[in-house]
Write a structure and sequence with these properties.
The complex is a heterodimer.
Chain A (H helix, E strand, L loop, with lengths): L23 H19 L5 E4 L4 H14 L4 E5 L7 H14 L2 E4 L3 H8 L7 H23 L2 E2 L5 H6 L20 H11 L3 H4 L13 H5 L3 H12 L4 H7 L3 H12 L29
Parallel strand pairs in A: 1-2, 1-4, 2-3
Helix pairs in contact in A: 1-2, 1-7, 2-3, 2-7, 10-12
Chain B lengths: L1 E8 L7 H18 L5 E3 L14 H4 L3 H15 L6 E12 L2 E12 L13 E7 L11 H4 L8 E4 L2 E7 L6 H9 L4 E6 L12 H17 L2 E6 L1 E4 L2 E4 L3 E3 L5 E4 L6 E8 L1 H9 L2 H7 L1 H13 L14
Parallel strand pairs in B: 1-2, 2-3, 7-8, 8-9
Antiparallel strand pairs in B: 1-14, 3-4, 4-5, 6-7, 9-12, 10-11, 12-13
Helix pairs in contact in B: 1-3
Classes of the chains: A mainly alpha, B alpha/beta.
Chain lengths: 287, 315
Protein backbone atom coordinates (compact mmCIF):
# COMPACT_ATOMS: atom_id res chain seq x y z
CA UNK A 1 0.00 0.00 0.00
CA UNK A 2 1.30 3.45 -0.91
CA UNK A 3 0.25 5.69 1.97
CA UNK A 4 -0.86 9.22 1.17
CA UNK A 5 0.36 12.06 3.34
CA UNK A 6 -2.45 13.54 5.45
CA UNK A 7 -2.57 17.29 5.83
CA UNK A 8 -4.76 18.19 8.78
CA UNK A 9 -6.63 21.46 9.30
CA UNK A 10 -5.39 23.33 12.35
CA UNK A 11 -8.02 23.87 15.02
CA UNK A 12 -7.86 27.01 17.12
CA UNK A 13 -7.28 26.14 20.80
CA UNK A 14 -9.60 27.84 23.29
CA UNK A 15 -6.75 29.76 24.91
CA UNK A 16 -5.64 31.27 21.60
CA UNK A 17 -5.92 35.01 21.03
CA UNK A 18 -5.61 34.55 17.26
CA UNK A 19 -9.20 35.69 16.65
CA UNK A 20 -8.61 38.89 18.59
CA UNK A 21 -5.48 39.96 16.75
CA UNK A 22 -5.63 43.30 14.97
CA UNK A 23 -3.51 44.92 12.30
CA UNK A 24 -2.30 47.73 14.56
CA UNK A 25 -0.88 50.13 11.92
CA UNK A 26 -4.02 49.84 9.77
CA UNK A 27 -6.32 50.20 12.78
CA UNK A 28 -4.42 53.24 14.04
CA UNK A 29 -4.70 54.95 10.66
CA UNK A 30 -8.44 54.17 10.56
CA UNK A 31 -9.16 55.48 14.06
CA UNK A 32 -7.21 58.67 13.41
CA UNK A 33 -9.23 59.18 10.22
CA UNK A 34 -12.41 58.46 12.24
CA UNK A 35 -11.56 61.08 14.88
CA UNK A 36 -10.67 63.73 12.29
CA UNK A 37 -13.80 63.01 10.25
CA UNK A 38 -16.26 62.85 13.13
CA UNK A 39 -14.84 65.71 15.22
CA UNK A 40 -13.51 68.17 12.65
CA UNK A 41 -15.27 67.55 9.34
CA UNK A 42 -18.75 66.55 10.49
CA UNK A 43 -19.08 68.46 13.77
CA UNK A 44 -16.79 71.42 13.06
CA UNK A 45 -14.70 71.19 16.26
CA UNK A 46 -10.93 71.63 16.21
CA UNK A 47 -10.29 70.42 19.76
CA UNK A 48 -11.33 67.61 22.08
CA UNK A 49 -11.55 67.01 25.82
CA UNK A 50 -11.12 63.65 27.49
CA UNK A 51 -11.09 62.46 31.09
CA UNK A 52 -7.69 60.86 31.82
CA UNK A 53 -7.90 58.24 34.53
CA UNK A 54 -4.39 56.90 34.14
CA UNK A 55 -5.80 53.64 32.80
CA UNK A 56 -5.11 52.12 29.41
CA UNK A 57 -8.38 53.13 27.71
CA UNK A 58 -8.21 56.87 28.31
CA UNK A 59 -4.45 56.84 27.75
CA UNK A 60 -4.88 55.23 24.34
CA UNK A 61 -7.59 57.74 23.43
CA UNK A 62 -5.22 60.58 24.40
CA UNK A 63 -2.54 59.12 22.13
CA UNK A 64 -5.01 58.79 19.25
CA UNK A 65 -6.39 62.30 19.73
CA UNK A 66 -2.89 63.78 19.85
CA UNK A 67 -2.18 62.15 16.46
CA UNK A 68 -5.53 63.12 14.98
CA UNK A 69 -5.86 66.72 16.16
CA UNK A 70 -2.38 67.71 17.31
CA UNK A 71 -1.37 67.58 20.99
CA UNK A 72 -2.08 71.27 21.61
CA UNK A 73 -5.71 70.70 20.59
CA UNK A 74 -6.34 67.96 23.15
CA UNK A 75 -7.40 68.77 26.72
CA UNK A 76 -7.03 66.01 29.27
CA UNK A 77 -8.66 66.29 32.67
CA UNK A 78 -7.62 64.31 35.74
CA UNK A 79 -10.51 64.08 38.19
CA UNK A 80 -9.34 62.37 41.36
CA UNK A 81 -11.51 61.61 44.38
CA UNK A 82 -9.84 61.51 47.78
CA UNK A 83 -9.65 57.70 47.69
CA UNK A 84 -8.28 57.51 44.14
CA UNK A 85 -5.03 55.65 43.73
CA UNK A 86 -1.90 57.83 43.66
CA UNK A 87 -0.77 55.73 40.69
CA UNK A 88 -3.72 56.99 38.67
CA UNK A 89 -2.54 60.60 38.91
CA UNK A 90 1.07 59.66 38.18
CA UNK A 91 0.11 57.57 35.17
CA UNK A 92 -2.06 60.37 33.80
CA UNK A 93 0.99 62.63 34.12
CA UNK A 94 3.01 60.09 32.13
CA UNK A 95 0.42 60.30 29.34
CA UNK A 96 0.71 64.05 29.30
CA UNK A 97 4.51 63.84 29.14
CA UNK A 98 4.44 61.26 26.36
CA UNK A 99 1.84 62.98 24.17
CA UNK A 100 2.28 66.69 24.99
CA UNK A 101 -1.47 67.21 25.40
CA UNK A 102 -2.85 69.87 27.75
CA UNK A 103 -3.69 68.53 31.19
CA UNK A 104 -5.49 69.95 34.20
CA UNK A 105 -6.59 68.41 37.48
CA UNK A 106 -10.06 69.02 38.88
CA UNK A 107 -10.71 67.32 42.23
CA UNK A 108 -14.21 65.91 42.54
CA UNK A 109 -14.01 65.16 46.29
CA UNK A 110 -15.94 68.23 47.45
CA UNK A 111 -18.63 67.81 44.82
CA UNK A 112 -19.08 64.10 45.50
CA UNK A 113 -18.93 64.36 49.29
CA UNK A 114 -21.29 67.35 49.22
CA UNK A 115 -23.97 64.95 48.06
CA UNK A 116 -22.77 61.73 49.68
CA UNK A 117 -22.66 63.20 53.20
CA UNK A 118 -26.45 63.27 52.94
CA UNK A 119 -26.42 59.58 52.03
CA UNK A 120 -24.54 57.75 54.79
CA UNK A 121 -26.10 54.46 53.66
CA UNK A 122 -24.63 54.69 50.15
CA UNK A 123 -22.71 51.52 49.35
CA UNK A 124 -19.68 51.28 47.12
CA UNK A 125 -21.70 50.86 43.95
CA UNK A 126 -23.79 53.97 44.60
CA UNK A 127 -20.73 55.99 45.58
CA UNK A 128 -18.92 54.86 42.42
CA UNK A 129 -21.86 55.85 40.22
CA UNK A 130 -22.02 59.28 41.86
CA UNK A 131 -18.33 59.82 41.17
CA UNK A 132 -18.64 58.67 37.56
CA UNK A 133 -21.57 61.01 36.95
CA UNK A 134 -19.78 63.97 38.55
CA UNK A 135 -16.72 63.27 36.42
CA UNK A 136 -18.85 63.36 33.28
CA UNK A 137 -20.53 66.56 34.49
CA UNK A 138 -17.04 68.07 34.74
CA UNK A 139 -16.02 66.82 31.28
CA UNK A 140 -19.15 68.22 29.61
CA UNK A 141 -18.93 71.52 31.50
CA UNK A 142 -15.26 71.93 30.59
CA UNK A 143 -16.07 71.09 26.99
CA UNK A 144 -18.62 73.93 27.03
CA UNK A 145 -16.07 76.30 28.56
CA UNK A 146 -13.35 75.34 26.08
CA UNK A 147 -15.64 75.11 23.06
CA UNK A 148 -14.52 71.57 22.45
CA UNK A 149 -15.99 68.08 22.04
CA UNK A 150 -15.94 65.39 24.77
CA UNK A 151 -14.54 62.06 23.61
CA UNK A 152 -15.41 58.74 25.24
CA UNK A 153 -13.06 55.93 26.19
CA UNK A 154 -15.26 52.87 26.88
CA UNK A 155 -14.13 49.61 25.26
CA UNK A 156 -16.29 46.84 23.77
CA UNK A 157 -15.79 44.36 26.61
CA UNK A 158 -17.01 46.74 29.30
CA UNK A 159 -19.87 47.85 27.05
CA UNK A 160 -20.93 44.23 26.57
CA UNK A 161 -20.61 43.55 30.32
CA UNK A 162 -22.50 46.73 31.21
CA UNK A 163 -19.47 47.62 33.33
CA UNK A 164 -19.91 51.38 33.37
CA UNK A 165 -22.25 53.97 34.81
CA UNK A 166 -25.22 54.54 32.52
CA UNK A 167 -25.27 58.04 31.00
CA UNK A 168 -21.86 58.77 32.50
CA UNK A 169 -18.82 57.00 31.00
CA UNK A 170 -20.88 56.14 27.91
CA UNK A 171 -22.21 59.64 27.23
CA UNK A 172 -19.55 61.44 25.11
CA UNK A 173 -20.76 61.74 21.51
CA UNK A 174 -17.65 60.21 19.92
CA UNK A 175 -15.85 57.06 21.02
CA UNK A 176 -12.97 55.48 19.08
CA UNK A 177 -12.63 52.35 21.27
CA UNK A 178 -16.22 51.14 21.61
CA UNK A 179 -15.82 48.31 19.08
CA UNK A 180 -12.48 47.04 20.43
CA UNK A 181 -12.27 44.28 23.02
CA UNK A 182 -10.03 45.01 25.99
CA UNK A 183 -7.31 42.67 24.75
CA UNK A 184 -7.34 44.59 21.44
CA UNK A 185 -7.07 47.88 23.35
CA UNK A 186 -3.98 46.51 25.10
CA UNK A 187 -2.41 45.52 21.76
CA UNK A 188 -3.13 48.88 20.15
CA UNK A 189 -1.90 50.78 23.25
CA UNK A 190 1.41 48.90 23.14
CA UNK A 191 1.73 49.63 19.42
CA UNK A 192 1.12 53.35 19.95
CA UNK A 193 3.63 53.58 22.75
CA UNK A 194 1.40 53.96 25.81
CA UNK A 195 3.83 53.40 28.75
CA UNK A 196 3.99 49.73 29.78
CA UNK A 197 3.36 50.64 33.41
CA UNK A 198 -0.13 51.71 32.28
CA UNK A 199 -0.82 48.88 29.83
CA UNK A 200 0.51 46.17 32.11
CA UNK A 201 -1.26 47.10 35.35
CA UNK A 202 -4.54 45.43 36.36
CA UNK A 203 -7.46 47.37 34.88
CA UNK A 204 -9.49 49.18 37.53
CA UNK A 205 -12.38 51.62 37.60
CA UNK A 206 -10.64 52.99 40.76
CA UNK A 207 -13.96 53.82 42.37
CA UNK A 208 -13.29 51.67 45.43
CA UNK A 209 -9.86 51.11 47.04
CA UNK A 210 -8.22 47.95 45.74
CA UNK A 211 -10.87 47.35 43.10
CA UNK A 212 -9.96 45.63 39.80
CA UNK A 213 -12.21 44.98 36.81
CA UNK A 214 -11.35 41.30 36.64
CA UNK A 215 -12.09 40.67 40.34
CA UNK A 216 -15.44 42.40 39.83
CA UNK A 217 -16.18 40.20 36.81
CA UNK A 218 -14.92 36.90 38.18
CA UNK A 219 -13.14 36.22 34.89
CA UNK A 220 -10.06 37.63 33.18
CA UNK A 221 -10.38 39.92 30.19
CA UNK A 222 -8.62 37.51 27.77
CA UNK A 223 -10.90 34.64 28.77
CA UNK A 224 -14.01 36.81 28.55
CA UNK A 225 -13.01 38.30 25.19
CA UNK A 226 -12.46 34.88 23.63
CA UNK A 227 -15.98 33.82 24.64
CA UNK A 228 -17.57 37.14 23.65
CA UNK A 229 -15.92 36.85 20.23
CA UNK A 230 -17.86 33.66 19.51
CA UNK A 231 -21.11 34.63 21.26
CA UNK A 232 -21.42 37.80 19.18
CA UNK A 233 -20.92 35.76 16.03
CA UNK A 234 -23.91 33.61 16.92
CA UNK A 235 -22.19 30.48 18.19
CA UNK A 236 -24.43 28.44 20.49
CA UNK A 237 -23.50 27.65 24.08
CA UNK A 238 -23.25 23.95 23.17
CA UNK A 239 -20.81 24.77 20.38
CA UNK A 240 -18.65 26.72 22.84
CA UNK A 241 -18.74 23.78 25.26
CA UNK A 242 -17.73 21.44 22.43
CA UNK A 243 -14.83 23.76 21.64
CA UNK A 244 -13.58 23.32 25.18
CA UNK A 245 -14.55 26.53 26.93
CA UNK A 246 -15.38 25.92 30.64
CA UNK A 247 -19.12 25.91 31.31
CA UNK A 248 -18.78 28.26 34.29
CA UNK A 249 -16.96 30.85 32.16
CA UNK A 250 -19.51 30.63 29.35
CA UNK A 251 -22.42 31.00 31.80
CA UNK A 252 -20.83 33.99 33.52
CA UNK A 253 -20.13 35.83 30.28
CA UNK A 254 -23.55 35.02 28.78
CA UNK A 255 -25.35 36.21 31.92
CA UNK A 256 -23.52 39.54 31.95
CA UNK A 257 -24.26 39.99 28.26
CA UNK A 258 -27.94 39.06 28.53
CA UNK A 259 -28.68 41.23 31.57
CA UNK A 260 -27.24 44.46 30.20
CA UNK A 261 -28.83 44.94 26.76
CA UNK A 262 -30.89 47.82 28.17
CA UNK A 263 -27.75 49.68 29.10
CA UNK A 264 -26.64 49.89 25.48
CA UNK A 265 -29.80 51.72 24.41
CA UNK A 266 -31.49 55.04 24.89
CA UNK A 267 -34.27 55.19 27.53
CA UNK A 268 -37.43 53.25 26.70
CA UNK A 269 -40.16 55.56 25.46
CA UNK A 270 -43.84 54.65 25.38
CA UNK A 271 -44.75 54.40 21.68
CA UNK A 272 -48.09 56.10 21.11
CA UNK A 273 -48.15 57.13 17.46
CA UNK A 274 -47.08 56.07 13.99
CA UNK A 275 -44.42 58.79 14.05
CA UNK A 276 -42.68 57.59 17.22
CA UNK A 277 -39.07 58.79 17.27
CA UNK A 278 -36.54 56.04 16.43
CA UNK A 279 -39.40 53.59 15.81
CA UNK A 280 -41.09 55.22 12.81
CA UNK A 281 -39.35 58.56 12.46
CA UNK A 282 -35.88 57.35 11.56
CA UNK A 283 -32.93 59.60 10.83
CA UNK A 284 -29.27 58.68 11.36
CA UNK A 285 -27.22 60.46 14.03
CA UNK A 286 -25.35 62.58 11.49
CA UNK A 287 -28.33 63.52 9.32
CA UNK B 1 -11.00 51.69 -28.81
CA UNK B 2 -9.27 53.49 -25.98
CA UNK B 3 -11.33 55.10 -23.22
CA UNK B 4 -9.87 57.37 -20.57
CA UNK B 5 -11.69 56.69 -17.34
CA UNK B 6 -11.63 58.55 -14.02
CA UNK B 7 -13.21 57.25 -10.81
CA UNK B 8 -13.67 59.62 -7.92
CA UNK B 9 -13.92 58.58 -4.28
CA UNK B 10 -15.63 61.36 -2.37
CA UNK B 11 -17.06 62.20 1.06
CA UNK B 12 -20.55 63.60 0.49
CA UNK B 13 -22.13 65.94 3.04
CA UNK B 14 -25.00 64.03 4.64
CA UNK B 15 -28.35 64.74 3.02
CA UNK B 16 -27.13 67.96 1.33
CA UNK B 17 -27.94 67.50 -2.37
CA UNK B 18 -26.99 71.03 -3.43
CA UNK B 19 -23.62 70.95 -1.65
CA UNK B 20 -22.78 67.57 -3.12
CA UNK B 21 -23.86 68.62 -6.62
CA UNK B 22 -21.56 71.61 -6.31
CA UNK B 23 -18.76 69.26 -5.19
CA UNK B 24 -19.30 67.19 -8.33
CA UNK B 25 -19.10 70.46 -10.28
CA UNK B 26 -15.67 71.02 -8.75
CA UNK B 27 -14.63 67.57 -9.98
CA UNK B 28 -15.88 68.43 -13.49
CA UNK B 29 -13.76 71.58 -13.32
CA UNK B 30 -10.69 69.75 -12.03
CA UNK B 31 -10.95 67.13 -14.76
CA UNK B 32 -11.22 69.89 -17.36
CA UNK B 33 -8.00 71.40 -16.01
CA UNK B 34 -6.01 68.28 -15.11
CA UNK B 35 -7.34 65.60 -17.48
CA UNK B 36 -9.47 67.21 -20.20
CA UNK B 37 -9.33 64.08 -22.35
CA UNK B 38 -11.32 62.09 -19.76
CA UNK B 39 -14.15 60.18 -21.46
CA UNK B 40 -15.98 58.67 -18.47
CA UNK B 41 -16.24 59.82 -14.85
CA UNK B 42 -17.51 57.28 -12.30
CA UNK B 43 -18.61 58.35 -8.82
CA UNK B 44 -19.74 56.14 -5.91
CA UNK B 45 -23.10 54.96 -4.64
CA UNK B 46 -25.18 57.69 -2.95
CA UNK B 47 -22.77 60.39 -4.17
CA UNK B 48 -25.33 63.17 -3.77
CA UNK B 49 -26.43 62.43 -0.22
CA UNK B 50 -24.25 59.97 1.66
CA UNK B 51 -25.35 56.38 2.15
CA UNK B 52 -27.01 55.91 5.57
CA UNK B 53 -30.12 58.09 5.32
CA UNK B 54 -32.85 55.88 6.81
CA UNK B 55 -36.11 57.82 6.36
CA UNK B 56 -34.10 60.73 4.93
CA UNK B 57 -34.16 58.93 1.57
CA UNK B 58 -37.47 60.62 0.82
CA UNK B 59 -35.86 64.05 1.28
CA UNK B 60 -32.67 63.32 -0.67
CA UNK B 61 -34.18 61.40 -3.60
CA UNK B 62 -34.48 62.96 -7.05
CA UNK B 63 -35.99 61.77 -10.30
CA UNK B 64 -33.57 60.71 -12.99
CA UNK B 65 -34.71 63.69 -15.07
CA UNK B 66 -34.05 66.14 -12.25
CA UNK B 67 -30.62 64.66 -11.61
CA UNK B 68 -29.67 64.69 -15.28
CA UNK B 69 -30.78 68.32 -15.66
CA UNK B 70 -28.75 69.25 -12.57
CA UNK B 71 -25.64 67.40 -13.77
CA UNK B 72 -25.92 68.97 -17.21
CA UNK B 73 -26.44 72.46 -15.79
CA UNK B 74 -23.54 72.02 -13.39
CA UNK B 75 -21.25 70.72 -16.13
CA UNK B 76 -22.08 73.63 -18.43
CA UNK B 77 -21.54 76.16 -15.67
CA UNK B 78 -18.16 74.69 -14.75
CA UNK B 79 -16.74 73.60 -18.13
CA UNK B 80 -16.60 76.44 -20.62
CA UNK B 81 -15.10 74.53 -23.56
CA UNK B 82 -17.98 74.40 -26.06
CA UNK B 83 -17.11 70.99 -27.50
CA UNK B 84 -16.58 69.35 -24.11
CA UNK B 85 -18.17 65.93 -23.63
CA UNK B 86 -18.14 63.62 -20.63
CA UNK B 87 -19.98 60.42 -19.78
CA UNK B 88 -20.94 60.28 -16.11
CA UNK B 89 -21.92 57.24 -14.05
CA UNK B 90 -22.91 57.86 -10.44
CA UNK B 91 -25.08 56.52 -7.66
CA UNK B 92 -27.99 58.46 -6.13
CA UNK B 93 -31.27 57.92 -4.30
CA UNK B 94 -33.99 57.97 -6.93
CA UNK B 95 -37.67 58.85 -6.87
CA UNK B 96 -39.25 56.99 -9.78
CA UNK B 97 -42.55 55.34 -10.62
CA UNK B 98 -43.93 56.39 -7.26
CA UNK B 99 -41.18 54.58 -5.34
CA UNK B 100 -37.73 55.23 -3.92
CA UNK B 101 -34.71 53.35 -5.23
CA UNK B 102 -30.98 53.13 -4.69
CA UNK B 103 -29.98 53.78 -8.31
CA UNK B 104 -27.12 54.68 -10.61
CA UNK B 105 -27.39 56.80 -13.73
CA UNK B 106 -25.18 56.63 -16.82
CA UNK B 107 -25.47 59.76 -18.95
CA UNK B 108 -23.57 62.04 -21.29
CA UNK B 109 -23.13 65.72 -20.46
CA UNK B 110 -21.84 68.22 -22.98
CA UNK B 111 -20.46 71.74 -23.22
CA UNK B 112 -22.75 74.74 -23.38
CA UNK B 113 -22.81 75.20 -27.15
CA UNK B 114 -22.32 71.61 -28.12
CA UNK B 115 -24.88 71.59 -30.93
CA UNK B 116 -23.63 74.87 -32.37
CA UNK B 117 -20.06 73.64 -32.77
CA UNK B 118 -21.16 70.59 -34.66
CA UNK B 119 -20.48 68.08 -31.91
CA UNK B 120 -22.51 65.03 -32.91
CA UNK B 121 -22.66 63.67 -29.38
CA UNK B 122 -25.88 64.72 -27.69
CA UNK B 123 -26.40 65.09 -23.98
CA UNK B 124 -28.64 62.23 -22.87
CA UNK B 125 -29.47 59.65 -20.24
CA UNK B 126 -28.33 56.25 -21.52
CA UNK B 127 -29.21 54.00 -18.63
CA UNK B 128 -30.58 53.82 -15.13
CA UNK B 129 -29.76 50.82 -12.95
CA UNK B 130 -31.80 50.20 -9.81
CA UNK B 131 -29.98 48.18 -7.15
CA UNK B 132 -30.93 44.55 -7.60
CA UNK B 133 -29.73 43.13 -4.28
CA UNK B 134 -30.60 45.36 -1.32
CA UNK B 135 -28.50 44.46 1.75
CA UNK B 136 -30.71 44.23 4.84
CA UNK B 137 -28.63 42.65 7.57
CA UNK B 138 -26.33 43.90 10.30
CA UNK B 139 -25.51 47.54 9.65
CA UNK B 140 -27.56 47.57 6.43
CA UNK B 141 -31.29 48.29 6.27
CA UNK B 142 -32.00 49.08 2.62
CA UNK B 143 -35.17 47.06 2.05
CA UNK B 144 -36.86 49.12 4.72
CA UNK B 145 -36.35 52.37 2.84
CA UNK B 146 -36.01 51.66 -0.89
CA UNK B 147 -37.53 49.30 -3.45
CA UNK B 148 -35.58 46.66 -5.32
CA UNK B 149 -34.63 46.95 -8.97
CA UNK B 150 -35.88 44.17 -11.21
CA UNK B 151 -33.31 43.98 -14.00
CA UNK B 152 -29.63 43.80 -14.87
CA UNK B 153 -29.15 45.31 -18.31
CA UNK B 154 -26.31 45.91 -20.72
CA UNK B 155 -26.71 49.18 -22.60
CA UNK B 156 -25.04 50.91 -25.51
CA UNK B 157 -22.65 53.82 -24.98
CA UNK B 158 -20.45 55.65 -27.44
CA UNK B 159 -17.71 53.28 -26.25
CA UNK B 160 -19.58 50.02 -26.70
CA UNK B 161 -21.81 48.02 -24.40
CA UNK B 162 -21.58 48.49 -20.65
CA UNK B 163 -23.46 47.58 -17.49
CA UNK B 164 -23.80 49.15 -14.06
CA UNK B 165 -23.97 47.33 -10.72
CA UNK B 166 -24.36 48.79 -7.25
CA UNK B 167 -22.37 47.42 -4.30
CA UNK B 168 -24.02 44.15 -3.14
CA UNK B 169 -25.12 43.49 -6.73
CA UNK B 170 -21.47 42.66 -7.36
CA UNK B 171 -21.23 40.32 -4.36
CA UNK B 172 -23.46 37.89 -6.27
CA UNK B 173 -21.62 36.39 -9.21
CA UNK B 174 -24.91 35.97 -11.08
CA UNK B 175 -25.36 39.71 -11.75
CA UNK B 176 -22.01 40.18 -13.47
CA UNK B 177 -22.70 36.98 -15.36
CA UNK B 178 -26.02 38.38 -16.62
CA UNK B 179 -24.30 41.63 -17.63
CA UNK B 180 -21.59 39.78 -19.55
CA UNK B 181 -24.11 37.49 -21.25
CA UNK B 182 -26.03 40.57 -22.35
CA UNK B 183 -22.91 41.90 -24.01
CA UNK B 184 -21.31 44.25 -21.50
CA UNK B 185 -17.59 44.73 -22.06
CA UNK B 186 -17.21 47.25 -19.25
CA UNK B 187 -18.93 46.87 -15.89
CA UNK B 188 -19.13 50.00 -13.76
CA UNK B 189 -19.58 49.25 -10.08
CA UNK B 190 -20.51 52.05 -7.68
CA UNK B 191 -20.33 51.31 -3.99
CA UNK B 192 -20.60 52.51 -0.39
CA UNK B 193 -18.81 49.79 1.55
CA UNK B 194 -18.42 50.29 5.32
CA UNK B 195 -15.08 49.12 6.73
CA UNK B 196 -15.14 46.22 9.17
CA UNK B 197 -12.62 43.66 10.46
CA UNK B 198 -9.12 45.04 10.93
CA UNK B 199 -7.19 41.84 11.53
CA UNK B 200 -5.65 41.00 8.14
CA UNK B 201 -3.39 42.71 5.65
CA UNK B 202 -6.34 44.72 4.32
CA UNK B 203 -9.58 45.86 5.94
CA UNK B 204 -11.95 42.87 5.74
CA UNK B 205 -14.38 44.25 3.17
CA UNK B 206 -11.55 45.67 1.04
CA UNK B 207 -9.95 42.24 1.00
CA UNK B 208 -13.30 40.86 -0.20
CA UNK B 209 -13.55 43.47 -2.99
CA UNK B 210 -9.96 42.69 -3.97
CA UNK B 211 -11.10 39.12 -4.63
CA UNK B 212 -14.51 39.91 -6.12
CA UNK B 213 -13.52 42.55 -8.66
CA UNK B 214 -10.65 40.65 -10.32
CA UNK B 215 -12.88 37.57 -10.21
CA UNK B 216 -15.60 39.32 -12.20
CA UNK B 217 -13.10 40.75 -14.69
CA UNK B 218 -11.17 37.51 -15.12
CA UNK B 219 -14.17 35.16 -15.40
CA UNK B 220 -15.97 37.17 -18.06
CA UNK B 221 -12.95 39.01 -19.52
CA UNK B 222 -14.51 42.42 -19.03
CA UNK B 223 -13.11 45.70 -17.80
CA UNK B 224 -14.30 46.61 -14.31
CA UNK B 225 -14.34 50.16 -12.97
CA UNK B 226 -15.11 50.43 -9.25
CA UNK B 227 -15.81 53.69 -7.39
CA UNK B 228 -16.14 53.53 -3.60
CA UNK B 229 -17.36 56.16 -1.15
CA UNK B 230 -14.96 57.37 1.57
CA UNK B 231 -15.50 59.22 4.84
CA UNK B 232 -17.38 58.40 8.03
CA UNK B 233 -21.11 58.47 8.63
CA UNK B 234 -22.01 58.09 12.29
CA UNK B 235 -18.88 56.07 13.04
CA UNK B 236 -19.19 53.86 9.97
CA UNK B 237 -16.32 54.57 7.61
CA UNK B 238 -16.43 53.78 3.90
CA UNK B 239 -13.37 52.19 2.41
CA UNK B 240 -12.89 53.82 -1.00
CA UNK B 241 -10.26 51.65 -2.72
CA UNK B 242 -11.62 52.62 -6.12
CA UNK B 243 -9.94 50.68 -8.88
CA UNK B 244 -9.81 49.73 -12.53
CA UNK B 245 -9.37 46.05 -13.40
CA UNK B 246 -8.33 44.78 -16.80
CA UNK B 247 -9.98 41.76 -18.53
CA UNK B 248 -7.30 39.44 -17.13
CA UNK B 249 -8.15 40.43 -13.56
CA UNK B 250 -5.25 42.80 -12.91
CA UNK B 251 -5.92 45.95 -10.93
CA UNK B 252 -4.12 48.72 -12.83
CA UNK B 253 -4.78 51.53 -10.33
CA UNK B 254 -6.28 51.72 -6.84
CA UNK B 255 -7.20 54.56 -4.46
CA UNK B 256 -6.65 54.59 -0.70
CA UNK B 257 -9.17 53.35 1.87
CA UNK B 258 -9.62 56.68 3.64
CA UNK B 259 -8.84 59.68 1.46
CA UNK B 260 -10.72 61.46 -1.29
CA UNK B 261 -9.02 61.14 -4.68
CA UNK B 262 -9.48 60.62 -8.40
CA UNK B 263 -7.99 57.53 -9.98
CA UNK B 264 -7.49 57.47 -13.74
CA UNK B 265 -6.60 54.88 -16.34
CA UNK B 266 -7.01 53.99 -19.98
CA UNK B 267 -9.29 51.17 -20.98
CA UNK B 268 -8.63 49.47 -24.32
CA UNK B 269 -11.81 47.64 -25.30
CA UNK B 270 -9.80 45.56 -27.80
CA UNK B 271 -8.34 43.76 -24.77
CA UNK B 272 -11.72 42.12 -24.17
CA UNK B 273 -11.51 40.07 -27.36
CA UNK B 274 -7.83 39.29 -26.78
CA UNK B 275 -8.53 37.97 -23.30
CA UNK B 276 -11.60 36.00 -24.40
CA UNK B 277 -9.70 34.35 -27.23
CA UNK B 278 -7.23 32.93 -24.71
CA UNK B 279 -9.80 32.03 -22.08
CA UNK B 280 -13.22 31.48 -23.67
CA UNK B 281 -15.19 31.00 -20.45
CA UNK B 282 -17.99 33.29 -21.58
CA UNK B 283 -18.35 31.36 -24.85
CA UNK B 284 -18.47 28.12 -22.84
CA UNK B 285 -21.18 29.62 -20.69
CA UNK B 286 -23.17 30.71 -23.74
CA UNK B 287 -22.91 27.20 -25.17
CA UNK B 288 -24.25 25.68 -21.95
CA UNK B 289 -26.94 28.29 -21.47
CA UNK B 290 -29.79 26.00 -22.48
CA UNK B 291 -28.91 23.45 -19.80
CA UNK B 292 -28.31 26.17 -17.22
CA UNK B 293 -31.68 27.71 -18.01
CA UNK B 294 -33.36 24.32 -17.52
CA UNK B 295 -31.57 23.91 -14.19
CA UNK B 296 -32.69 27.34 -13.05
CA UNK B 297 -36.26 26.67 -14.13
CA UNK B 298 -36.15 23.40 -12.21
CA UNK B 299 -34.97 25.24 -9.09
CA UNK B 300 -37.71 27.86 -9.56
CA UNK B 301 -40.37 25.12 -9.90
CA UNK B 302 -39.02 23.04 -7.02
CA UNK B 303 -37.00 25.15 -4.57
CA UNK B 304 -36.24 22.02 -2.52
CA UNK B 305 -34.55 20.43 -5.52
CA UNK B 306 -36.23 17.04 -5.76
CA UNK B 307 -33.81 14.36 -6.84
CA UNK B 308 -34.70 13.84 -10.52
CA UNK B 309 -33.70 10.20 -10.53
CA UNK B 310 -35.51 9.10 -7.38
CA UNK B 311 -38.17 11.79 -7.15
CA UNK B 312 -37.29 12.29 -3.48
CA UNK B 313 -37.89 15.80 -2.23
CA UNK B 314 -36.56 17.30 0.98
CA UNK B 315 -38.79 19.81 2.76
Amino acid sequence: MIRLPIIRAIETPVDSDENLKVNEPMLTEWLIAFLRDEIVRRRGFKTAVVGISGGVDSSLVAFLLAEALGASNVFGIRMPYRTSSADSLEHAALVQQATGINMQTIEITDAADGYLKMCPDADGRRRGNVMARIRMTVVFDQSQKLGTLPVGTGNKTERLFGYYTWHADDSPPVNPLGDLYKTQVWALARFMGVPEVIVGKPASADLIVGQTDESDFGISYPKADRILFYLLRGFTLQRLLDMGFPEADITLVKRRLDTTHWKRHLPTTAMLSSTSINDYYLRPVDY
Amino acid sequence: MKIRVAAGQIKPRKGDYDYNLNRIGEIFEQLEEDAPDTDVLVLPEASLSGYFLEGGVREAARTREQLFADLLGTYRSRVKRPDAVLDVCLGFYELGDGKYYNSAIYCTVTGANCSEVGNPIPAAIHHLHRKFFLPTYGVFDEKRFVSRGRAVTAFSTRFGKAAVLICEDAWHSITATLAALKGAQIIYIVSASPGREFCGQHIGNVARWNVLLPGIADEHNVWVVYAGLVGFEGGKGFTGSSQIIDPWGNSIVQGSATEECLITGTIDTDDVATARAASPLLADLEAALGDITMELEQIARDPYCADRTTGASEP
